[in-house]
Amino acid sequence: MPRIQGHRAASTRPADAKTTTRKTSKVDAPPAKKVDAYVAPAAAHGASPKVGVEKAGLSFAGKTGADAVVDLANYIEAGGSPFAGESDSDRAKVFSTLSKMLEPGGGAPKTTRPALLQRSAAATALLSLAGTAKADLRDQALGAYAKALGGERTYGLRMSMLVNLDAAKLPLTGQAKAVADKVRAELLPGKPPYEEWFKGGKHTLNVKHYVMDDF
After folding, report:
1. Low-confidence ranges of the chain (pLDDT < 50)
2. What is the DSSP string of the chain?
3. pLDDT at site 108
4. Any idea where the domains of the chain sit in the sequence?
5. Per-residue pLDDT at 185
């Protein structure tokens, strides 16, 4: 039976160091962050803002392009369902725009924060659209989502997309299902990679555990 050998890094705080605390006053407290009303669920603030497509790109709640899709994703995550009342033709237009936002543009996906934020928001919106669309458009949306999932190289976004896809419980078929299954096996394997850990006759796995100074 292989052994797993643990190691806990020692604290770097000097033995004679003193900890000081300061009581925070009302003056020190940061101002409350203003949240636009449309970000809250539609049930509490009336009908959902219209999702549209313009020359500048996606439009939502008075914004267009990347800003619009980020606000749209925030609205969805707050419980809104912006595509529930849309017509099939309008959903199809939005699908086309969101799909292009998820494409890498002929090269590897950019890893800048704005690019990641746009892809994350577009993925959230596309999955929400798939949940309200009829079978044909739903399959197209899920196919585009799965393609983006398979091509994404940023671990955090890739994991988030997979977890959200599984939570949506939408029916996957064909290539979309194959891609999702492959990514799931990579990110959420059914068992630890013992063969990789103990290849070459190794019998010990060294584990380093780092703890912050406060602990």
Report:
1. 2-15, 17-45, 106
2. --EEEEEEPPP-S-TT------PPPTTTSPPPPP--GGGS-HHHHSSPPPEEEETTEEEETTEEHHHHHHHHHHHHHTT--TTTT--HHHHHHHHHHHHHHHS-SSSSPP-SHHHHHHHHHHHHHHHHHHHHS-HHHHHHHHHHHHHHHHH---HHHHHHHHHHHHHHTPPP-HHHHHHHHHHHHHHS-SS--HHHHTGGG--EEEEEE---TT-
3. 56
4. 38-209
5. 92
